[in-house]
Amino acid sequence: MIFGIGVDITDIARIKAAQAKNTHFKARVLTAAELAVYANLAPKRQAEYLTGRFSVKESFGKALGTGIGRVGFLDIEVLDDELGKPVVTKNPFAGRALVSISHTDTMVMSEVILERGTD
Fold this sequence. Notes:
This is Holo-[acyl-carrier-protein] synthase. Belongs to the P-Pant transferase superfamily. AcpS family. Keywords: Cytoplasm, Fatty acid biosynthesis, Fatty acid metabolism, Lipid biosynthesis, Lipid metabolism, Magnesium, Metal-binding, Transferase. Its EC number is 2.7.8.7. The protein is of the alpha+beta class. It has a single domain, classed as CATH 3.90.470.20. It is about 40% helix and about 30% strand. It is built from four helices and five strands; from the N terminus they run βααααββββ. It has helices at about 10-20, 25-30, 30-40, 45-65, and strands spanning about 1-10, 75-80, 85-90, 95-105, 105-115. The strands form two sheets. The protein has a three-stranded antiparallel sheet with strand order 1-5-4. A two-stranded antiparallel ribbon has the order 2-3.
């Protein structure tokens, strides 16, 4: 049964500017495992990755119904599986979390669906 759905659209330039202004921004958004992935990416891909994870975590908060604040960015972790599919590997929800991320050259869109009563 679907518990909640969250969608977010984030401008890549906005997140790049936040990171440029505060070099600790990425550490406030990304978990240690996500930071390890981020560190091995080219600069353009780093901006897409950071914006994507930021967007997913915003979507997660919306799906949960609390928004970011009551649930922190570091409470949610999204890593790619062996095929490159994003998977929520850590979160405070007692159920299944499904995620999708897409981007253009300037924007990232994400969607999170939270389900209860599934395997």
